[in-house]
Amino acid sequence: MADLAVSASGASGAPGTATATSTGTSTAASDPGLHLVHDPAHGLSVTVRRHLDHAPVPEWRALAHRAGQPPFTGPDWLRAVHSHLGRGEPLLVSVRRDGRLLAFGAFALLGGPRPLLTFLGAGGSDYAGVLTDPDADVPAVRLVAAVLDGALREAPGALWDLEQVPDGEQAEVLVAWARFRGYGVRTLPQAVVHTVALAATVDEHDAGLGRHARHEERRQWRRLAELGELTVADDLLEAVTAARGHDPEAAADRLEELVTELAEVDDAHPHADRRRRPWRGASGRTLTEVLWTSPPGTVQLSGVRVDGELVAYAFCLAGPRALHGYVQSYRARYAPTGPGTLLLLRLCRRAVLSGYRELDLLRGDEVYKRRLRPTPRRTVRLVLTPPGRDVVPALADRLALLRRTYRDEVRRSERLDRSWTALVGAVGRVREEAARRRGALPAPPRIRRRR
C-alpha cells in the first residue's frame, strides 16, 4: 500500500475517534496541553507507512537518541525483532513540522474479527513507547496524540495492547490520550527492571565494593589465569567491524563464527537446561541482524578467553543515558572462578569511564542482579478498549484480550501470582526429574510379538 499522508488537523472527526468523555474533558481542563489532543493542528503533518521498506532509519535513530530512549525503541532493534519474531503488519507513524521529524510511533496491526494494535516488536523488546523530540516547541502530549490518532485512522475502532511501557510519564501520556478518546483502560504490572547507579569515578566504584570484594576479585582473576592463557576482549566485534569496510563477505563469515561461539557458551552454561538459548533459532537470527545492522558502538560485546576458547561473554546495548545489559553467560566448568561476575565488574568500570551513570540490567528478577543493590522499576501493559460496544461484542473483546494478557492479569493478585509461580516451579521440577530418569534408566527391551 502506498504511504498515506494526512493533515493532523480535525482529529475530532477522524474515523475511529471517540467523543471525549466527561473524564477526558475534566482532565483536559486541568492540563493546559491535553485539550490540544482534540485538535493537534498548527502545522503538524502525519505520515503512515504500512511497511518497513524505506522507513526513515537515520531520522528514527536520531530521534530515539534525542528522546533519551534505549535502542529497543530504535530501527535496528525493532526491524530485526519484527522480521524474525514479530506478528502482524507494520504500521509506522511519523509526525513532522516543516519537514523535521518530531514524533514517531512503530506499531504492528494484527487482523482478526477485531483489529488490534501493538507496539512493533511486542514480546521481544524490554521497553516500548512513542518517541517525541524533547527540543520541539510542541507539547509532547500533542505529539503523542498525533501519532496515536494517525494509527487509529488506519484501524478505526481497534483494540490496543501496549506492552513494556515504562511506568511513569510515558504511561501517563498514553492513558491520558485513551481516556480523552473515551477508551476503557486497564493497567497491568508487567516486569521488574533493575538498574544500578554507577559511581562518578572508577576509584569511587572500587571503594564502594569494599576491600574484601576487591581482594576476591583479584584472587578469581589469578585462578582463571592459572587455567591457561587468559585474554580479555572488551570488543569481540572488533574483527567484524574492521573487515566490513573492505571485505563484507569476510566480515559476515567472522560474525557467523562469533555467533556460533556465543551459542556454544550458552549450551555449556550450568543451567543450560532451564535457560533460553538467545543465539539459537529465530532469536539468534534476530540478534545476529542487530549485530550486523547497528551503528558502531551501539552493541557492546565483551568476553573472556582461556587458551583461545570463549568461556564467558556479556552482550550490552548502549543508549544515550544508560548501558543496558541484555544477556551474559559462561561455561559451567569455569564456574568456580566466577567469570561472569568478573566480566560484569569490568563492564561496570568501563561504563563509568564512558560517562554512564546507570547500568540497566533490564527485566527479570534474577538473584545476581539483587547482589548489586539495584533500584527496581516497573514496566506496565496498557490494554485499551474502545467505547460504545454492546454487551456481547464487548465481552468478545475482553476474551480476545484475555488470551494475550492472562499471565499479567494473574500477576495483579499477589496470592494468584504466588500460586502461579509455585505451579510453574513444580511443573519445571517434574520435567527435570522425568528428564533425569530418562537419562539414568536404560531403554526398555523391545518385545517381539509371536505370530
TrEMBL record:
InterPro entries named among the record's database cross-references: Acyl_CoA_acyltransferase, BioF2-like_GNAT_dom
Region Disordered: start-end pairs: 1-34
Protein origin, superkingdom: Bacteria
Bias type Low complexity, positions: 7-30
SUPFAM superfamilies: Acyl-CoA N-acyltransferases (Nat)
Spans through the membrane: none
Pfam families recorded: Acetyltransf_6
Domain BioF2-like acetyltransferase: 212-370
Name of the protein in its database record: GNAT family N-acetyltransferase
